[in-house]
Amino acid sequence: MPGLGRAVTAWRTGWERLEQRWPLLRWASIRRQLLMLGVLPVLIAGPLLVLVLYLSATTYDRLLIQKVRADLATAANYFERVMDVTGRSVSALADSAALVRQLPHPTAPEALGELLQRHQHQHRLDFVCLLTPDGQVLRCTDPQAQVQSYGAWAVVHAASAGGSRTELDVFSAAQLAALSPALAHTARIPLQPTANAVPDARAEEARGLLVHSAAPVHDAHGTVQAVLVGGVLLNRNTGFVDHLNEIVYPPGVLLGGSHSTATVFLGDVRVATNVRLPEGDRAMGTRVSAAVREAVLERGERWHDRAFVVRDWYVSGYLPLMDSREQRVGMLYVGFLEAPFASARRGAQTLVLGVFIGMLAVGLWLARRLSLSLIRPVERMHQVMSEVEAGSLSARVQLPRRADELGALAEHFDRLLTRLEDQTRELRQRGATLDAEVATRTGELEAALTELRTAQRQMIRQEQLAAIGQLTAGVAHEINNPVAVIQGNLDLMRERLGDHARPVRDEISLIREQVQRIRLIVAKLLQFSRPSEYAGQVDTILPAAVVQDCLLLVGHLLRRSRIAVEQQCSATRTLHASRNELQQVLVNLLVNALQAMPEQGVLSVHVRDQTAADGRPGVAFTISDTGPGIPPEHLDKLFQPFFTTKQHGAGTGLGLWVSRTLVERFGGHIEVENRPGAGASFTVWMP
After folding, report:
1. Per the confidence metrics, is the pTM higher than 0.90?
2. Sign of the dihedral defined by the CA atoms of residues 65, 68, 74, 77, in that order
3. What is the DSSP string of 613-678?
4. 288-297, 403-412, 671-680: lowest mean pLDDT where?
5. pLDDT in tens, 108-123
6. E strands, 278-404, where?
7. What's the distance, Cα to Cα, between the start and end of the chain in Å?
8. Secondary structure letter of residue 197 according to DSSP
């Protein structure tokens, strides 16, 4: 037993060194030493735990700040895109042939006004005006406009010089009223008392924050003939901030209980926001806190920190907004409620601290109990170790029989010399058992690796589909531009040719039909890339007719199988939805039902009037099969993207997900009823 002897010697040497360093240990009993050894790790872990809690809280707060920093960057990019879209809308009309044709005919102001109003509604602008190169107003879309000169804005100077420019500027109440009395009325926002804000003696904010753009209108010789200016008022523009909030904080991004907000400030006044007051109204006219105002508006810094917003603390990001004169005129804000995140952090810290305190108390109690029961066996074993170290292998511990590890250790130590051969054989058997366990665990690891690779392939597939969706959206956008040019020039050609176009009337009609076909294809591409955002054409639909069309589309599958079809149509109501999209949903459900009955069965299609629980009238389409039904473990995954039970790549797992997206877009829903061993039923309810 030379190895055991060396271990005892090393232990004794280490303890003697501790006694030399801390003399008090020489007079400490073994009981106190054991208690000290049990408590010391806990006492050492206490400060470390406090440090870990502090570092984790600091890191958690830093991660929240990093998130709001990224959110603010996303919001700034969206704001720049809105300005760019406004500029391109104005430039598109300035470059159009229709506007150039109207300018030489000042005797027809009504036609020019209709052209400007049509463009304003088409591009969702709040006003459009036509100016002379020196800024004098020729025509505005609002008939009540009284403005004579648009003013010395930088956008007008740039357009007069032959360029296009888009800027953010503040218009006074008088300037807004001259452009359009409706704009001045919309921009007027009463100021509300706001906690932590700088005092303001004003009763209302009558100025307007506008994104306006100007573009030159050239004649045939390239000379600037006029200047076209248009813009969007941000005051009370709830659609802008709501869409901005949806882009920055899509559903599911924030912790449960938190909510996101977005705001556009004119100065320190909220002129467009989805921040809510306690009574539920939007917090229009409330103002930013004094600390944020000083940092962002006065010093021009970006704010990435917690801030008091109306009545709660939010993790906030503020960005100063600059006008055409490089003056800070407002702020762009995004943020989310801090309380749920702080509560989650405190809960985690409390749990960790409570567990630690509980473990400390239990450790102290156990250390005391164990010190009483361990002292005599330890002393006896120490004595036997000394005898073994001296070479007396006949020494035995011979403790009274104990049921704990010390008793087992003493018995094992007593039998060590006489059972060495048996233990060797036992070790070999344990080695064989260990090999078997290693083989079993290796198989489990291989299975887990296979599952991981499958998940990796699915992730790659999702990334590829996402890339295809982005590419599809880009291609559709690029196709729309030349199609618009073709459509416009075709209308211009017919208008200019007049009666001379009769010989090629059929060809022109064919071109128009093909242009419409291209537009339909582009719409389908956009629907594929963004099914939840892109709505199809709304038609008036007879339920019975659309069911017959769908059965006709799957007729080739019915003819290849022995499947009977049962129809029952008692619906008397009509639907207002996209016929193509409703057909897509019903055909997908019919194909799934047929694939559930590969040999034979009964396909049931029932259409009936049904009123929803909230009182809305609608029509229910029920498609049932007599197949094996749906496994219960698959019910919760049916409408998840990329979930499919079809083998060898026969399905993409997108059919039911896309179908539910299409139905919910028109206010409907899909329900499933499973009958294990007897088939399944899918019911599509449409309002």
Report:
1. no
2. negative
3. TTS-EEEEEEEE--SS---GGGGGGTTSTT----STT---S-HHHHHHHHHHHTT-EEEEEEETTT
4. 403-412
5. 667 788 888 888 898 8
6. 303-309, 312-322, 328-337
7. 88
8. S
